[in-house]
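User: Sequence recovery, please. Input:
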């Protein structure tokens, strides 16, 4: 299987091209069958991490945009790209401080020469239970449960590929008019997804909080096969832990860790940001930090995959984030340590009155 090559004058160059394209196509298949797309700025794409992170912000509604490009410096237009968008709104009040939130999120992922893609969309709801109100020395706490349901579909562009049955060794060329002899389809059947999650957080003081949560995604393990058989999408388990620790009136530390396990695949991103805020009525804040991602090589144990440099600029209602993954795995000789570039943007609509404000942790 190969992507359509440009004119290659010698056989050795053709074999080298085949090797590298097959190598990255194999990486694509591993991502497809083992692990969902992910963002290094996991806190900037909360609904991709945990349905219970819906509505955890100080405002009426929030909109997020995320974009990630990986391996572009190595494979050019065949880079792995992921784009996501979400809209999240708080709704009503139930009891003393309890409330609901509703959300919609969409994602498009595309990878490799075959343009293997995933397009999905979810609708979600979360219930926020206020456990303590901050009176009598008790710190404000919330327990949140959330669920998402939606549809997704995998697809590929077989026109960008050629197969062994089309290769003519006598002329060292490919006959694109020859049959591929492949039984697959280019669009897998649409599949239904169901995800659930829970989140707990406590506000310990000004710029001082802690949160912990977990999620289970693809509970129904849908069929995602391109062939006339069944390949189930593995359940994904996610855990996260973090908080905010004040270091001075203007500076705080935001540590965080997310751990994901899906079938045989495992990865974790952990680290922290330093956040500086002017603490004014028109707040401006800067977050900068470093994270590490570790992952498994299936049967070869855990290894350090990337070092992530991340910066986010907050201007009142807006937040703009940028990060870069520096590859430090065994691929670094081929990639020259070049990895993924990621950007994020969010907008939060404030409450009409400060009395409506809900105390939330910063992620």
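Assistant: Recovered sequence (363 residues):
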């Amino acid at each position: 299987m190969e992507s359509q090559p440009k004119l290659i004058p010698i056989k050795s160059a053709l074999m080298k091209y085949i090797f590298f394209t097959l190598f990255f196509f194999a990486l694509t298949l591993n991502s497809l069958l083992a692990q969902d797309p992910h963002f290094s700025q996991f806190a900037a794409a909360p609904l991709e991490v945990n349905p219970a992170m819906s509505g955890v912000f100080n405002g009426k509604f929030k909109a997020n945009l995320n974009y990630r490009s990986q391996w572009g410096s190595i494979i050019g237009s065949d880079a792995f790209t992921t784009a996501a968008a979400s809209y999240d709104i708080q709704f009503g009040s139930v009891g003393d401080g309890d409330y609901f939130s509703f959300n919609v999120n969409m994602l498009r992922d595309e990878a490799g020469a075959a343009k293997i893609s995933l397009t999905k969309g979810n609708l979600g709801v979360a219930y926020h239970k206020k456990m303590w109100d901050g009176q009598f020395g008790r710190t404000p706490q919330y327990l949140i449960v959330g669920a998402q349901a939606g549809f997704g579909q995998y697809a590929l562009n077989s026109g960008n590929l050629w197969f062994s049955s089309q290769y003519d060794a006598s002329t060292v060329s490919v006959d694109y008019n020859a049959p591929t002899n492949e039984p697959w389809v280019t669009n897998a059947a649409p599949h239904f997804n169901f995800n659930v999650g829970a989140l707990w957080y406590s506000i310990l003081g000004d710029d001082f909080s802690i949160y912990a949560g977990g999620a289970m995604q693809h509970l129904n393990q849908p069929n995602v096969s391109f062939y006339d058989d069944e390949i189930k999408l593995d359940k994904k388990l996610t855990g996260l832990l973090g908080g905010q620790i004040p270091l001075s009136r203007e500076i705080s530390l935001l540590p965080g860790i997310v751990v994901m396990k899906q079938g045989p695949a495992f990865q974790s991103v952990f680290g922290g940001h330093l956040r500086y805020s002017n603490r004014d009525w028109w707040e401006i804040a800067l977050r900068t930090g470093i994270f590490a991602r570790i992952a498994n090589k299936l049967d070869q144990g855990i290894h350090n995959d990337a070092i992530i440099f991340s910066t986010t600029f907050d201007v009142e209602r807006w937040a703009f984030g940028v990060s870069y993954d520096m590859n430090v795995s065994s691929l670094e000789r081929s990639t020259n340590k070049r990895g993924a570039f990621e950007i994020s943007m969010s907008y939060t609509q404030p409450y009409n009155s400060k009395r409506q404000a809900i105390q939330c942790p910063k992620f």
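The CA atoms of residues 31 and 279 lie 43 Å apart.
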